[in-house]
Amino acid sequence: MGANNTPDQDELRVFHTGDHACGYWPTRIARDLVLDPRDPRMPNLYPMALGWGFRRSGDIVYRPHCQGCRACVAVRIPIDQFVPDRSQRRCLVRNANVEARVVPAERTDEQLALYQRYLRARHRGGGMDEHGGVEFDQFLIGSWSHGRFLELRERSVEGKGPGRLLSVAITDVVENALSAVYTFFEPDLPERGLGTLSLLKQIEWAKRDHRAHLYLGYWIEGHDKMDYKRRFRPLEAFDGRGWRAMPV
């Protein structure tokens, strides 16, 4: 990767951001590598960038590149090797009345209302809890991604319209892989394990479409909100040069 003055030349422009507050450890300072968001080739570059340990947020494709810290580790699930553990199988049984469907990445009022309930419950006071429709589109959809929404709904009674919306998993669809961008779900149903269920349904989707991997973004050892990813085994981690199996 190199740098040049115009985005239509062959080389790919990569930028360092300035220092900013870490979103995971409040006492740490972070910075990122960002692919040039003005590059018109971004839809085609993005699948390769996932393979380099990058991730998408809106139209920004980035990878943490912090001074003296390598806590964020890009991880992915090799779909053909995944077998749900006992807890995950129980989650599937417990949610036998939940149906999954893939829909276009287009915001609805119902999805926005669920998103706002989720943010108020999980991220109150962090700035995101004020998100409206514009922020929803900018953060989750963007202008160029090949995304879909995986909706989880309670099975409707006697086929009378769609059932209650429980979860939405924003999922990028690229050649031979899916990427889990962000998931929000009904915060008042902890007994359902909707975060786990959403990932299991994304794995089922990837397996059904014969895709090799599901990218999960970053895992951080010792971080309560990120450590759940270790429960999806086997797991591969990007070490800066290539993907390696993570130790059990």
Architecture blueprint of SSEs:
Blueprint lengths: L13 E3 L3 E2 L7 E2 L1 E4 L6 H10 L3 E3 L2 E5 L8 E6 L7 H9 L3 E7 L4 H14 L10 H9 L5 E8 L10 E10 L2 E9 L8 H15 L4 E7 L16 E3 L4 E3 L3
Parallel strand pairs: 11-12
Antiparallel strand pairs: 1-4, 2-3, 4-6, 5-6, 7-12, 7-13, 8-9, 9-10, 10-11, 13-14
Question: Explain this structure to me?
Answer:
The protein has 248 residues and is of the alpha+beta class. It is built from 5 helices and 14 strands. The chain has helices at 42-51, 86-94, 109-122, 133-141, 194-208; strands spanning 14-16, 20-21, 29-30, 32-35, 55-57, 60-64, 73-78, 98-104, 147-154, 165-174, 177-185, 213-219, 236-238, 243-245. It has an 8-stranded mixed sheet. The protein has a 4-stranded antiparallel sheet with strand order 1-4-6-5. It is globular, with a radius of gyration of 18 Å. The protein starts with 13 loop residues before the first strand and ends with a strand. The model is unreliable at 1-8 (pLDDT under 50).
In short:
The chain is of the alpha+beta class.
Overall mean pLDDT score? 92
| Residue windows where pLDDT falls under 50 for at least 5 positions | 1-8
Radius of gyration: 18 Å
Distance between the termini: 33 Å
Spatial order of strands in the largest sheet: 8-9-10-11-12-7-13-14
**What sequence of helices (H) and strands (E) makes up the elements?**
EEEEHEEEHEHHEEEHEEE
Sheet/helix structural class = alpha+beta
Share of β-strand residues: 25-35%
Level of helix content?
10-25%
**Secondary structure: number of strands:** 14
Largest sheet: 8 strands, mixed
Number of helices: 5
Global geometry: globular
